[in-house]
């Protein structure tokens, strides 16, 4: 049996972290430019009341997703999506655990519905009016890339991939090592002139430690390795893909 090559064109990119609150800001930072820091992501797709109520992990995921769709010139409602987060929203998880331990009858239904791992995907599909399939996985960014390109290889014309993670608070910091707030998104579609293309190869080995100029302590920081390679025109980005495994992302910048 011949393996189906996992390849795609990168149609659009979106990024948000406090130190580089856009893809353009991240490229500027890599080039040594001064960048104005962000405070809190505010995706225009959400009405103001929803933005105030939504957790930061949802906001950063939607901010990056919307920016990637805009960069690609794609209607968000037409794209199947893959949302990947290592931990989901740990701040809400911490709050729910503390409430269950001290005052279980005061558990908030709103907090609970924001605690589920597909919360960001749910907000996205409602806000964007997206009727295409949405996938939410608990994994690292490499697994999100594999899932998105597997969907393309089995019939999806273009796929929106969104990776995000937030801060581990309180006692959860003892078991979940993640800091800050980070969201990145790619629209992956057919190869087109003037846009970079990527090819995935899963190999044995260990990926180098993540050396990111921003958000290096975030669980989703490996996505910045790929984004930096795209910005610099590098030919390869190596992403951790589990113990003893590396996702080799080969880039062709055309």
Automatic annotation (TrEMBL):
InterPro entries: Ketoacyl_synth_N (IPR014030), Thiolase-like (IPR016039)
Domain of life: Bacteria
Coiled coil: none
Location of the Beta-ketoacyl synthase-like N-terminal domain: 35-179
Listed name of the protein: Beta-ketoacyl synthase chain length factor
Organism: Pseudoxanthomonas kaohsiungensis
Lineage: Bacteria, Pseudomonadati, Pseudomonadota, Gammaproteobacteria, Lysobacterales
